């Protein structure tokens, strides 16, 4: 399950740990490399193909890079002790935040992505005073569309042939249709 984000300006913030029933959302560490490789060796959504990792050294470098990125959270699963995915995004000044998530396929369908995304959205609205959160999701990514709906996000648009993440056998770009979902702080508070 994954949602894609638009690239935007970053705000210099440290990642504070956020705790849920089954997860700790925290900064990445170098020793998360093996787990990171586990879900990025074959990314589940085409928008994450550029993040594909081929081996442990690449995963180690990616974990180190993520450890210094603001608003990038490793999802540490309490029962297994593993990092099973991540939630990340970017602040678009002054008060809009793009959000994305991905989770290891072995842990999909257990409500963990919802648990993590809900905790981050609540953190953004309550602690960071963000006014609006949005996510881009490809039309073929039904689990992320359902997650957006569970969060109370509404579909704001459909971008036909919005972007290409890969090429076909002839080298021509494969364009995907992308939906935009969004949620306002006042909608979150009213739910």
Automatic annotation (TrEMBL):
GO terms for molecular function: acyltransferase activity, transferring groups other than amino-acyl groups. InterPro entries: Acyl_CoA_acyltransferase (IPR016181), GNAT_dom (IPR000182), N-acetyltransferase (IPR051531). Pfam families: Acetyltransf_3 (PF13302). Residues 23-175 form the N-acetyltransferase domain. Keywords: Transferase. SUPFAM superfamilies: Acyl-CoA N-acyltransferases (Nat) (SSF55729). PANTHER family: GNAT FAMILY, PUTATIVE (AFU_ORTHOLOGUE AFUA_3G00765)-RELATED-RELATED, N-ACETYLTRANSFERASE DOMAIN-CONTAINING PROTEIN. This is RimJ/RimL family protein N-acetyltransferase. It comes from Novosphingobium fluoreni. The lineage of its organism: Bacteria, Pseudomonadati, Pseudomonadota, Alphaproteobacteria, Sphingomonadales.
């Amino acid at each position: 399950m994954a949602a894609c984000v638009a690239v935007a300006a970053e705000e210099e913030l440290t990642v504070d740990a956020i705790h849920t029933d089954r997860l700790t959302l925290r900064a990445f560490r170098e020793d998360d490399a093996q787990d990171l490789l586990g879900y990025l060796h074959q990314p589940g959504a085409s928008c994450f193909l550029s993040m594909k990792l081929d081996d442990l050294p690449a995963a180690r470098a990616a974990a180190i890079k993520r450890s210094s990125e603001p608003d990038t959270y490793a999802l540490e699963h309490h029962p297994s002790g593993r990092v099973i995915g991540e939630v990340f995004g970017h602040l678009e000044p002054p008060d809009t935040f793009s959000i994305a998530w991905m989770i290891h396929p072995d842990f999909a369908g257990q409500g963990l992505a919802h648990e993590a995304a809900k905790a981050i959205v609540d953190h953004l609205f309550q602690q960071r005073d963000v006014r609006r959160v949005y996510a881009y999701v490809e039309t073929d990514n039904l689990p992320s569309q359902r997650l957006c709906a569970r969060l109370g996000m509404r579909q704001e648009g459909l971008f036909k042939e919005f972007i290409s993440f890969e090429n076909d056998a002839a080298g021509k770009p494969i364009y995907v249709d992308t939906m935009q979902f969004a949620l306002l702080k006042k909608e979150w508070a009213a739910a």
